[in-house]
């Protein structure tokens, strides 16, 4: 019997067991294998069939041809035993959550992701990101966060991200948190709808007639590359 699912999720199947005896029997089962579990005891009516549920809940990703192994053994009243070989394959983790936000350009926006520790022991998770897609051919943004997040066993902690986009459009980020020792990870998708901002500031100029007045406007380049700035009055 083969089962497959993303790591830290669950796959189930049912094994039909037929009672060949003319009386109701209590059937006991023994399930082995680190990530396999299932029903232990069930009553079977005379000449009836009972479905035994088997659950596969892997906590580690494996690569082919490796498989998680287990057995399901069902003990019958005449002393015989039915044996099923269990095989499980854990694929990479599915997306933990998708977050959607809207923000104006040139304005810092703080995003909070609730990160759950899937283990019962503390984990130090490396935080990285990648830009998966952009509606514009050129993207200008700054995404900052602490490079590591410590999370206690089976607890949830907030991960704070600060995003500033300098062009309008749609940005889709993949945020990954990895245990560098085990290489196990989980990831989130953040979809940002960025719209043009309004005025950054109001500048008031007061003077008497026929007397010019001046205001020094400081323009800061937030990017790592040289840019050309034009002025339209």
UniProtKB/TrEMBL annotation:
<dbReference type="GO" id="GO:0003341">
    <property type="term" value="P:cilium movement"/>
</dbReference>
<dbReference type="GO" id="GO:1904158">
    <property type="term" value="P:axonemal central apparatus assembly"/>
</dbReference>
<dbReference type="InterPro" id="IPR033305">
    <property type="entry name" value="Hydin-like"/>
</dbReference>
<dbReference type="GO" id="GO:0005930">
    <property type="term" value="C:axoneme"/>
</dbReference>
<protein>
    <submittedName>
        <fullName>Uncharacterized protein</fullName>
    </submittedName>
</protein>
């Amino acid at each position: 019997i083969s089962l497959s699912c993303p790591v830290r999720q669950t796959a189930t199947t049912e094994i039909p067991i037929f009672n060949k005896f003319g009386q109701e029997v209590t059937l006991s089962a023994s399930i082995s294998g680190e990530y396999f579990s299932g029903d232990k005891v069930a009553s079977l009516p005379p000449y009836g069939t009972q479905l035994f549920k088997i659950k596969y809940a892997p906590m580690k990703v494996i690569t082919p041809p490796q498989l998680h192994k287990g057995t399901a053994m069902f003990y019958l009243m005449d002393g015989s035993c039915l044996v099923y070989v269990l095989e499980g394959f854990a694929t990479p983790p599915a997306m933990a959550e998708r977050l959607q936000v809207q923000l104006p350009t040139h304005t810092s926006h703080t995003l909070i992701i609730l990160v759950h520790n899937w283990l019962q022991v503390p984990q130090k998770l490396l935080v990285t990101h990648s830009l998966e897609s952009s509606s514009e051919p050129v993207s200008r943004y700054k995404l900052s966060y602490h490079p590591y997040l410590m999370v206690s066993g089976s607890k949830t902690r907030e991960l704070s991200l600060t995003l500033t986009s300098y062009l309008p459009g749609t940005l889709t980020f993949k945020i990954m948190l990895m245990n560098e020792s085990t290489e196990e990870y989980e990831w989130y998708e953040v979809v940002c709808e960025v719209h043009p901002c309004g005025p950054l500031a109001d500048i008031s100029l007061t003077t008497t007639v026929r007397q010019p007045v001046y205001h020094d406007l400081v323009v800061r380049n937030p990017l790592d590359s040289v840019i050309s700035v034009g002025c339209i009055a």
